[in-house]
Specification:
The chain is α/β, with parallel strands linked by helices. It has 14 helices and 13 strands. The chain has a six-stranded mixed sheet with strand order 4-5-13-10-11-12, with helices on both faces. A hairpin with a 5-residue loop joins strand 1 and strand 2. Helix 3 crosses helix 4. Its EC number is 4.2.3.1. InterPro entries: Ser/Thr_Dehydratase (IPR050147), Thr_synthase-like (IPR004450), TrpB-like_PALP (IPR001926), TrpB-like_PALP_sf (IPR036052). This is Threonine synthase.
Length: about 425
């Protein structure tokens, strides 16, 4: 793997707001902002470093009702909100009292990201990636995807007037295929799993100089979009950090960036730097990070995914080791749950709070339940659950589990008989 995949089509200095350089995660090597994702010095992932200056609560509160209210904390142009984009974010934080009662805990909040433009948190990261890609002079927005990212990239490109190229496993849920294809970009189904698709994307990113693969050559910028979940949770809680948060794990990037967002808010004095614990959730059929945590390892061994939670089915998660670092540092834990538990998690959230989540959210809810049963989550401390995608995307997971209670003739008597009244 090389540090640079392709070259930028322009030499202009990018306007990426407070972002000043890239830094390697392992040894802290620094280099100029560029569409690169691996350090040439230590071959570790690159992430964005900033000079934030002064950021005040009132400045954020005066901003737009989307993620651009946090633009002073993101690698995006100073006028980002003026350029056509999908304007994601500002999703609701639900006080889930009925779910809390069902699980026997004091208070649970559900961060419901199904309200984003393409109904998943991926709209956040793609919006940031597109803004950075435009500054670097790219012309095509591309990605390998397990589904939600495919939707977000195709929609964001359509809104911006860009071409999109999206690579997906051919076994992806039908709903996610349709909700990507409708935007009329170039959707390519690949005979293989996500890890195969990701390898193909890395090869193409090296060959196609004008293509911005959001989770490959502009990944350092893309991943920063997940911080906005942390920012919104803290702001919606009244400018404070939650004691406990449960985050689903696919590549692992989201979990690490939620932690980064909390830390940045604390360092900037926007919230009090109170302790918090980060918990990770995986499906048992693709649980390499959970297995590493349980074994006390700091290395994640790749696995072949086999789970209904396809949006989390990344057998070789790029940020797995960094997830372990965050969870161990904050005193959290990582668990995994069976497909049966995933479905029950979906149904539990739906019947208690009226929130219909996809399988990834089912993983989060079911994992929280398991963490409570094993004493790893404190039932007396507040808990935030990240629900990252809409259940309409994964109808196949529940189609054999739910349906009409009865089928009757068109008469009131028949309805009363069916209901036993």
């Amino acid at each position: 793997m090389t540090a640079t995949l392709g070259t930028t089509p322009t030499t202009k200095t990018p306007d990426l707001g407070p972002a000043v350089e890239l830094v390697s995660k392992e040894e802290g090597h620094r280099q100029p902002l560029a569409p690169e994702f691996v350090s040439a010095e230590d071959f570790s992932p690159l992430e964005v470093a900033y000079d934030f200056g002064r950021v005040r609560r009132e400045d954020i509160e005066a901003g737009p009702k989307n993620i651009w209210r946090y633009k002073k904390l993101l690698p995006v142009p100073s006028n980002v909100e003026e350029i056509p984009n999908t304007e994601p974010g500002a999703t609701r934080l639900v006080q889930a009292d009925r779910l809390a009662k069902a699980l026997g805990v004091k208070k649970i909040w559900v961060k419901d990201d199904t309200g984003n433009p393409t109904h998943s948190f991926k709209d956040r990261v793609v919006a940031v990636a597109l803004a950075a890609a435009r500054e670097f002079g790219f012309e095509v927005l591309a990605c390998p995807s397990t589904g939600n990212l495919a939707n977000a990239v195709a929609a964001a490109a359509a809104r911006a007037g860009w071409r999109s190229v999206v690579l997906i496993p051919k076994t992806l849920e039908r709903a996610k295929i349709l909700t990507t294809a409708v935007y009329d970009g170039d959707l390519i189904a690949v005979d293989g799993n996500y890890d195969d698709v990701n390898r193909l994307a890395t090869q193409l990113a090296a060959e196609q100089e004008s293509w911005a693969f959001v989770n490959v050559n502009v990944r350092p910028y893309y991943s920063e979009g997940s911080k906005t979940l942390a920012f919104e949770v803290a702001e919606q809680l009244g400018w404070r950090l939650p004691p406990q948060i449960v985050v689903p794990i696919a590549s692992g990037s989201q979990l690490t960036k939620v932690d980064k967002g909390f830390r940045e808010f604390g360092q900037l004095g926007l919230v009090e730097e109170t302790p918090y614990k980060v918990f990770g959730a995986q499906a048992t059929g693709c649980s390499p990070v959970s297995a590493a945590f349980r074994a006390g390892h700091d290395v994640v061994q790749p696995v072949k995914p086999d789970t209904i939670a396809r949006s989390l089915a990344i057998g070789n998660p790029a940020d797995g080791p960094y997830v372990l670092d965050v969870v161990n540092r904050t005193g959290g834990a990582i668990e995994d749950v069976s497909d049966e538990e995933v479905v029950e998690g979906i149904r539990l959230l739906a019947r208690t709070e009226g929130v219909f989540t996809e399988t990834a959210g089912g993983v989060t809810v079911a994992t929280a339940k398991k963490l409570l049963e094993t004493g790893k989550l404190d039932p007396d401390a507040e808990i935030v659950l990240l629900i990252t995608g809409d259940g309409l995307k994964t109808l196949d997971a529940i189609e054999d589990k739910v349906g009409p209670k009865a089928t009757v003739s068109a008469s009131a008597d028949a309805v009363r008989e069916a209901l036993g009244i």
